[in-house]
Amino acid sequence: MENLEYIDITLIDEPPNQMRDEINNEKLEELTESIRKHGVLQPLVLRKVGERFEIIAGHRRFKAAWRAQLGKLPALVRSATDSEA
Predict the structure, then answer these.
(1) Secondary structure class of 74 (helix, strand, coil)
(2) Which of 12, 13, 15, 22 would you call most buried, defined as having the most Cβ atoms within 10 angstroms of its Cβ?
């Protein structure tokens, strides 16, 4: 079972192959404002890679949280291979 953890945003890396080629800046700014107001409501899904973490799901939330200058993000940390991630 996974536990919710709060991970320092500076320890989170973007995936090398992103699912979304392009993120709509207007929608990203809307999400950033929502996160500033309400926080991150749905945790990211991460995997541990060495001493750092890589995003499996929640790339837009990560980018918006970075813009909102949050320090820690709620996350579920899973074991996953490259192909599973």
Answers:
(1) strand
(2) 12
Query: 3-state SS of the chain: helix, strand, coil percent to 5?
Result: 30, 30, 40
Contact call for residues 70 and 34 (beta carbons, < 8 A): no
Taking the model in full, what pTM does it have?
0.86
Which tens digit of pLDDT belongs to each residue from 68-80? 999 999 999 998 7
CB 61 within 8 A of CB 53: no
* pLDDT per residue as tens digits for the range 36-54: 999 999 999 999 999 999 9
DSSP single-letter state for residue 19? S
What is the 8-class DSSP label of residue 12? E
Whether the Cβ atoms of residue 23 and residue 63 lie closer than 8 Å to each other: yes
More confident residue, 63 or 20: 63
Residues in the chain: 85
